[in-house]
Amino acid sequence: MRLVSEGGEATTLWRGPGRAAMGWGEIVRHLIPFAGALGTAIPRALQVSGAVEAHMPQGDFWYLHIAGCDPVAQGRGFGRRALVAGLERAAGRTPCYLETATERNLGFYASVGFAVTDEWRVGRDGPRFWSMLRPADRR
Q1: Could you tell me which CATH number the domain at 2-20+56-134 has?
Q2: Could you tell me the residue ranges of all domains in the chain?
Q3: Are 54 and 120 in contact (CB under 8 A)?
Q4: What does the DSSP assignment read for 64-105?
């Protein structure tokens, strides 16, 4: 499910229950357009992708795969509205899950009901991530 603000200031991309993990075919299909930009970092991108998948919860959940807001529009509610629209569509059905590598986003996600369930790194010295879950029964 893709949700984009009317003026394109913010967007979220959700993967529905049972569709959170990407198979190798989908991973390769997504990497091909970025191959030139990633260059020798492709193995690292695959390592990050594998680590993300390994930290996903068991069972059904909505997965917030991508959330983004134009930097000029940040702090004006566009990102929150795009996120809440996705949460409303998932309400009552299953939990919602995300991971973030941006510590300053933890409070933002907590303000809409997510709680940190894990903190982890990719490799020994790779980026730090936080896994966050929002229970299904939140309204």
Answers
A1: 3.40.630.30
A2: 2-20+56-134
A3: no
A4: EEEEEE-GGGTTTTHHHHHHHHHHHHHTTTS-EEEEES-GGG
Cα distances (angstroms) measured from residue 103 to each of 21, 22, 26, 128:
23, 25, 28, 9
Find, among 120, 112, 126, 107, the residue nearest to 56 by Cα: 120
Residue type, 110: A
List Cα–Cα distances, 14 to 62, 63, 83, 127, in angstroms: 7, 5, 10, 23
Answer for the pair 20, 63: CB distance below 8 angstroms, yes or no. yes
pLDDT digit string (tens) for 28-50?
A: 776 677 677 777 877 887 788 88
Q: Which residue has the tokens 């569709």?
A: 19
83 burial (CB, 10 Å; 0-12 / 13-18 / 19+) is buried
Q: How far apart are CA 50 and CA 3, in angstroms?
A: 26
What pTM was estimated for this model as a whole? 0.83
Residue 122 DSSP SS3? coil
Per the listing, tokens 């959170």 go with: 20
